[in-house]
Design a protein that fits this description.
5 helices, single chain, 27% helix, alpha+beta
């Protein structure tokens, strides 16, 4: 089955008013990461204020950190609730349809979430719904600033339930506090709605320890260095042979 849909939620996010702090438009890679914590009584969202390109450009072994402390976080804690889980997600619905790069998401994944299981239409719809959700969070955040923060009671418009933070329940982005997660990039692979979406596991890990959000650029494994040095040695050997001929 092949088709294209008009992603109304995506267009809403692109046309967000100027006060909106969570970037979901712009050039590919300019979308901003949002931290989300959810439990049975409420949820908390915080615009981290950094783009996917910014995090991708971190030097190996370095980290970006941001604390959650503040009035909205205190409000979230006051809701009570149990089983708090967290996710970090950025979305950029830049066009409509199913071509790679038109509707995009960068997301943590649950440690038990298999890759290659979410389908094109599921990924697109989930990303577009998240863009609309971020629009609502921005609209109702007060005061508005560079890093909008919003605590939301269970059942309210901006409550980040498990469905919205898990791409309509087709991709679990959430982990328990203190559990490290890798980041994954999702986009449609083609215009066949029920085929698996394209995914890339990024060289970045994420964690939340209950007070601080951390995004860390991975250090290459020793085997990667060995391959690099072997490749450089081979290039040098070839260059010396050519010079001696």
């Amino acid at each position: 089955m092949k088709f294209k849909t008009l992603a109304l939620a995506a267009m809403m996010a692109i046309a967000a008013p100027s006060f909106a702090a969570i970037q979901t438009g712009g050039a590919l890679g300019e979308g901003e990461y949002v931290f989300i914590a959810t439990n049975s009584a409420g949820s908390y969202a915080q615009d981290l204020g950094v783009s996917t390109d910014f995090i991708a450009a971190l030097a190996a072994g370095t980290s970006f950190t941001q604390a959650v402390a503040g009035a909205e976080w205190d409000k979230f804690l006051a809701f009570g609730g149990t089983n708090t889980q967290w996710a970090i997600i950025a979305v950029q619905p830049l066009d409509v349809g199913f071509n790679p790069g038109e509707i995009n998401a960068w997301t943590t994944r649950n440690v038990n979430q298999a890759l290659g299981t979410i389908q094109n239409t599921q990924s697109n719809d989930g990303s577009s719904n998240l863009a609309a959700h971020f629009f609502d969070i921005d609209s109702l955040s007060s005061p508005k600033g560079a890093n909008n923060r919003k605590a939301s009671a269970f059942g309210s418009l901006t409550y980040s339930d498990n469905g919205v933070t898990s791409f309509n329940s087709f991709f679990n982005a959430r982990n328990a506090v203190g559990v490290e997660s890798e980041l994954v990039y999702l986009t449609a692979s083609n215009d066949t709605s029920d085929l698996p979406s394209m995914y890339t596991v990024l060289a970045t890990t994420a964690n939340f320890d209950g007070s601080t959000v951390t995004l860390t650029s991975a250090v290459p494994e020793p085997s990667s260095y060995a391959m690099l040095f072997a490749g450089l040695a081979a290039v040098g050997f070839v260059a010396r042979r050519r010079k001696s001929v």
